[in-house]
Every structure is written in C-alpha cells, then in structure tokens.
Amino acid sequence: MLLIALGFGVGTIGTLVGVGGGFILLPVLLTVYPQVPHEVIASTTLFIGFINSITGVLANRRSGRVDLKSGLIFAAATVPASVLGAYFTQYLPVSLFQIILGFLMIIVSILMFLKNPEKKERSIKNANSKFILNRSFNMGGWTVIRWSYDVRAGVACSALAGFVSSLVGLAGGVFHIPMLIRILGFPVLVATATTQFIVIFSCLSATITNLVSGTLIEGIATAFVVSIGVVPGAFFGLVLSSKLKGPLIVRIFAVILLAVASKMIFSGLTA
Predict the structure, then answer these.
(1) For the chain, which terminus, N or C, has the lower number of CB atoms within 10 Å?
(2) 41 near 26, Cβ under 8 Å?
(3) In which band, very low, low, confident or very high, does the pLDDT at 245 lie, cut at 50, 70 and 90?
(4) What is the pLDDT of residue 15?
(5) Coil vs helix vs strand at 213
(6) For the whole model, what pTM was predicted?
(7) Is the pLDDT assigned to residue 26 strictly greater than 50?
(8) How far apart are CA 164 and CA 170, in angstroms?
(9) Listed residue (28, 68, 66, 64) closest to 45, CA to CA
(10) Which residues face 223 on adjacent strands?
(11) Alpha helices of the chain — where are they, by DSSP H?
C-alpha cells in the first residue's frame, strides 16, 4: 500500500512538472532498499517513468500542449543516448552515483530559479536559417504564444540529457524541462507536456536495454506495484497543472529538486 501511495505521489508530481517522477522515486527506493544494487533501482525507476509519462501524455492528449513535431525530433536524439547511458550505469560506484546525481539536480534547480520563464515564453528569434523552427501555442481565447529555436541546439541538448539521465536512472525530464524553457524558449505548459512525450521514448529504450542486460528482472515486481498508483496520480497532476500558472509550476519543480538533491548528496557522502 505504501508503494502504491508513493506511485500516486510520483504520478501527480511527474505530470504536474512534466517529468517521469524518477527524481523523487529514485532516492526513496535507494533509501528503502539499500541492499539492492543501484543499477537495479535505476532500471526500476526508468520503467516506472515510462508508465508515468505515457499516462501523462494520454491525459494531455486533448489539451494541445504536446508539441509533437519538436518532441519527435528530440526523441530521435535522446533515444540512442539513453541506451548508452543505461549500459554504463552498472560501472558507477553507488556513492559516486548518488553524488553526481545530487549535484546535477542542484545545478538544474538553480537554473530554474535564476530567470523568470515568462520572459522567454514571448520572445521570437528573427532568423531565416533552415535550422530554425517556428512554433506557436494557443493559451485560450485570443492569447497565442509564439517562439522559435535552433533545431541543432535542441538535438545536442536532448542527446546530452538522454545520456546523463539514463546513466543515473532518471527519465530525462529533469534535464529536458530546463532545456526547453531556458535554452529553447518553450512556454512552461508546452515544455512540461512535450517533455513527457520525449520521456516515453527515452525510458522505453533504456528499459529494453535493462531487460536485455537483466538488471530490471529483480525490480520488476516493485515497478508494477508502484505503477498501480502512478496512473491515477498522473491524471490528478493534470488537473492541478490546469489550475496553476507556469512560473509557479517551475518553482515547485525547483524546490522539490533541491530537497531531493540534498538528500542524494548526503547519502553519497555518508555511504
């Protein structure tokens, strides 16, 4: 029952801020199951991230928030990188694994606090390059947000996000969210929904890799139990996201990330 409740919380927060929920689930599972190898925990987290993300995208399917074209481009870059990261996970010592993950989370959290995302949401880059992609999103009524970005920058960032996130057992949303908002100028609501779409592919590719290598077998039962709570939690997260403003969602994401990062670094240093 506790694992199901944990899944509900992961599903809620994961859909609210657009990530797979692994940045919460991973440190909890590492604490609850200290005897389990960290690569098994990481593979379990990635599987649950896949369930959470696909549920979140289904919940968002009528909202218009998912930028499918951009999502497919970024997914094509992040999938091979995710496979590579999942393969190298087994070679990281557990203490170093936790410390690296913690510091990466702190950096992302600080980046989310530095600027007001609303400023970039309404900026348009005037460039005619064939690599510039122009996008728009109808916020409702007469409010339309337009932005554009360099596809090359998006592909490079997605590949890096896929490798690092899969290496440390995260779904990738933790790194894609700041990338889409800060670097590429996506509106917050579009960034969170589109990231969940991208995470489906990165988590699936990493999960298949972990199944082939055998690291997921030990944690598959835990993954299924947690997933029972993830599905309703994802739909509840969508309801919350529709009632909160973009900047507030970003702040919630950053605060939770900072708290979890501190716990990870402490665990790594005292291991």
Answers:
(1) N
(2) yes
(3) low
(4) 74
(5) helix
(6) 0.73
(7) yes
(8) 8
(9) 28
(10) none
(11) 2-17, 22-32, 38-59, 68-88, 94-114, 117-121, 151-167, 173-178, 188-213, 220-241, 246-270
